[in-house]
What we know:
By secondary structure, chain A is mainly β.
Amino acid sequence: QKEVEQNSGPLxxxxxxxxxxxxxxxxxxxxxxxxxxxxxxxxxxxxxxIYSNGDKEDGRFTAQLNKASQYVSLLxxxxxxxxxxxxxxxxKGNEKLxxxxxxxxxxIP
Amino acid sequence: GAGVSQSPRYKxxxxxxxxxxxxxxxSGHVSLFWYQQALGQGPEFLTYFQNEAQLDxxxxxxxxxxxxxxxxxxxxxxxQRTQQEDSAVYLCASSLGLYSYEQYFGPGTRLTVT
Lengths: 109, 114
């Protein structure tokens, strides 16, 4: 079992709709969780991090964490074509990040 | 500079050659990380420095991989006797230090071994 699991997609969402990206992790002791966006041929860019159970909102993005279920999600509201990218979930342990394989998201105009 | 820089951006090496990849972190950032990203995969941790001290090298795939950060700023990742399976994008990231949540990534070096 991989330490961080994501559905690789592709996930297609109409423009203006909500995109929902999910991630599960295996280390129950993990404390902080990250969502990175990566455009094709570019490096990962941090969107949000979360370390407390519940929701954290930043503009159109909401991260949700459920430590009991070892589950992290990212919601993107009012999806835009510019949101089309690969979204990487990462878990921090001993300073290093462990990434999932990423979910490819396509926003359909 | 404003962000993490890496050089070269692209490197083609013949199998068996040695390569050196450079990372310039954000000024003042204490922690520096190297990751390897194969096509279609997420980045995988290679090694981590705090200042000049290499605190974790558990992700280095073999003894052909070596990293250093002698003055606590610029870091070099060296790969000796390159193999085809070394072909990947090598990403460098830096952060302010311990307990800093954000790691900022450089543009990466795409290594192709022929």
